[in-house]
Records
---
Amino acid sequence: QAKAQGCNTWYCYSTEVKAGSMEPLRLRRELADAINQQQLVLHYQPIVTTDTGRFVAAEALVRWLHPQRGMVSPAEFIPVAERTGQIIAIGRYVLQQACQDMADLRRTTGRCIPVSVNISPVQFRRSGFFDELKAILQASGLPPEQLVLEVTENVLMSGTESSIELLHRIRDMGVGVAIDDFGTGFSSLSYLRQLPVNKIKLDRSFICDITTSRGHAAIVQGIITMAHHLGLQVVAEGIETEAQREDLLQRECDLLQGFLFSRPVPMTALLALPEHPRG
Ligand code: C2E
Ligand code: MG
Ligand code: MG
Ligand code: MG
């Protein structure tokens, strides 16, 4: 574990491995163990308001605590799990755990932290997803308004009518929908107009050089302005510097998420964050 190697936080990435360097078959087998042996854990990253910096929501991000390899990043194992179908079990676990964590928090402390959960296209397109979502919400007791599903643009592009219909049912239930990694796919803002979504999350690749690339700054400004005209909230991902925060404040971006405020952390650490996390 990272802690044994002198890190002050056990969830730091010092032991992160590239699962890509693991044999696919072995990875697949070990991932099956991970699901059965409860090696998957959720970390949460706060989302703050741009103007006041207040902590208002959190995104659930899954981690694999591998017994020998340490923490494996979801960027490494989610794509494999999508190919093998293991994402179905993983996705169900994540949704259940996130709803349970926030419902428990509400019951025991009265505190509400709306939570965003990433939904893989494989999971979203599978028949029965809606019923599963409903059952999970009911079992946890979390009010649907406290949950946001993050889907990527391509889910909606290829999904045609059935995906849009499903989004409507999800929204009618009270659950929010955000488009993740916005700007990296092929959807247009005019297409967004037809979609029942509440917010878009600007991809980190636009944010990292927003203060140095005029092109990216112009794209970001255009997206924010048009999203607001469509009545959508905008969240910027990957905020690492004060300059980026100030830039996005000028551009009237609604919400921010990034290492400047906090890395994704275990639930207990999330609860210990101040109301206005900075750096
Ligand atoms: P995402 O949903 O776009 O999540 C944001 C990613 O950006 C997270 O990486 C987060 O740790 C990282 N990040 C946040 N702020 C900063 C920053 O300031 N700087 C930098 N460099 N990175 C930042 P993470 O946790 O490694 O997750 C990567 C991706 O894996 C996620 O991207 C999401 O697509 C996927 N993922 C994570 N958890 C789940 C899950 O439970 N289900 C599914 N289907 N996918 C998941
Ligand atoms: Mg996300
Ligand atoms: Mg994203
Ligand atoms: Mg991303």
---
Amino acid sequence: MFESLQERLGSILNGLTGRGALSEADVTAALREVRRALIEADVALEVVRSFVEKVREKAVGAAVVKSIKPGQMVVKIVHDELVAMLGDEGKAIDLNAPAPVVIMMVGLQGSGKTTTTGKIAKRLTERQGKKVLMASLDTRRPAAQEQLRQLGEQVKVATLPIIAGQSPVDIARRAVQAGRLGGHDVVILDTAGRTHIDEPLMVEMADIRKVSSPHEILLVADALTGQDAVNLARNFDERVGITGLVLTRMDGDGRGGAALSMRAVTGKPVKLIGVGEKMDALEEFHPKRIADRILG
Ligand code: GDP
């Protein structure tokens, strides 16, 4: 669909072979293309700006060697910097705490929280032999608790029995207690989302956090979030304090710029990516692959 960054930079820079070093003007022209590629990949503008400045520092004066075309050289600088900013390869969910280890899932409605809760529960059960309990804290959407119960049946993971009329905080407290009494290794709390960030949502998340002391707080976000990704990540991180990110819908057409945006503003690792609706469609995060995808 788009011309790749390599092709674009090639037409600007590849005539320069043998000139010694890239000039400021060459780099400025190249960075214009880098900026375009990142914006097309849905990286948030403020992140694009700081990223481009970092690349500028590395690219100006970089020696042009005969064996490598200048366009390729800039692509390599951009690629390496993207990988560095995207962070570590597949950081696992940290279960290194006294049982039951509480994982709190947060995010907007429709981001894929409930689905991801089921996927993580299945993975921890099947691959790591953990005894997991899931609980839905979504009391606003009547079907939400039932949706998680059905997922639990599907992946053969226990869910906290539903008691009508309890508040999210009550359910969180009961889940941790049930996890302890039932000898569960892990309790996953699937919190309620809203269509957008608002004050009551943040207060509710903070209250749930207080009563359940989660060891991991994972922000689940749609990979197609685009320019809103920075606000979303910053808000959840400042108000609730996240420990990691899960990007869903990476099976879609999006180029995954949200991964870079959210990682850049929070400094928190992308731990997993969702690649489909099925319960097995969860993968480790590979910064190199995402960098390739962002560059197109
Ligand atoms: P929640 O409101 O955040 O709990 O979102 P849900 O878990 O109910 O997910 C909303 C929709 O997104 C459902 O139809 C899911 O099947 C779908 N979904 C979740 N994760 C993925 C993913 O990684 N890829 C795709 N294609 N669909 C997903």
---
Amino acid sequence: DKGGWSSFMAKEISEEPEALEATLLGRVHDGLVVLDEIEGGFPDDVLRGVDRIVLLGAGTAAYSGLLGKYAIEKWAGVPVEVELAHEFRYRDPVLSEHTLVASISQSGETMDTLMAVKYARERGARTLSICNTQGATIARESDAVLYTRAGPEVAVASTKAFTAQVVALYLFGLHLGRVRGALSDADSRGLVAELQALPAKLQEVLAQGGEVREMARQMSDTRSVLFLGRHVGYPVALEGALKLKELAYIHAEGFAAGELKHGPIALIEPGQRVFVVVPSPRDSNSLHPKVVSNIQEIRARGAYVLAVAEAGDVAVLPFADEVLRIPLAGPMFEPLLAVAPLQQFAMELAAAKGLDVDQPRNLAKSVTVE
Ligand code: M6R
């Protein structure tokens, strides 16, 4: 039941704030993350002995994994690799009992991911499943499960499951950081509070849906869109591009903004549409001026720039053709806000082209064959 929405995708995007809330529910006590449910497979002493984490998934799930990498390395100080599940098991990955392999899957039935989990297990790694479907095969094949609680996702394009996966990975990173003594309780509490503030902020972002629709309608004959982001904005750029490909059948690529001058800038010609996910100007890594200068570089070559930028960021105004705003959030949490307009954009562009938003051509919701 679409509940009055024009598509399941529209409904599921609107449910993102509750998906985040539900994924946090019962997992925060006294301002700190408590993940009792993974203790069977991953007691604290096992978590303290982990020397490497491999995150596996396909498509959108792999992009949530990329965000998990930034967070887990920062908060827990453990090296993290993200790998496409279908690549992982066809090479000879180095695994040991100290390797934690975490799979990410909405359906929990993706064959590529399932086979990779089995492969990792056979080679002695411990496996954690981040899954949205209760009792799914991948969950049953893993040593422990951390469920995302996004609720059923019907549209082929993943939206609320993605944001819930990121939250689950962040919860895991916060838990690991504290168990390993890498994060103080005070720092943990601050980060948990940021997480808890997200649903309301996301609601604000989603309220700009009308603006995004207008933008998409004006671009319905566009043949190519590029997406740029840096640091945690980079996975957002990849995800924005994937959404546009799968829904609107438009050629779209996501790039790390720092990579521009190493090749992709050659693609820029007058009228090329480019979304840029702009980091906060308050960001202490000072990536903001670097991304603003990327915008200037592509603008000078005729690009039409659509910026997703923090409220109050005036530095982008002289160079961006259109600006979508996101509320202030800590640097690690911006992607959970910035991805929503890109999801909406892909959906609206597909709708403007008269395409089936929920069931794009050639795709299945869950890929249960290799
Ligand atoms: O069910 P899963 O999360 O394992 O599915 C993985 C991918 O097939 C899935 O995310 C796919 O990329 C979506 N169609 C993206 O919107």
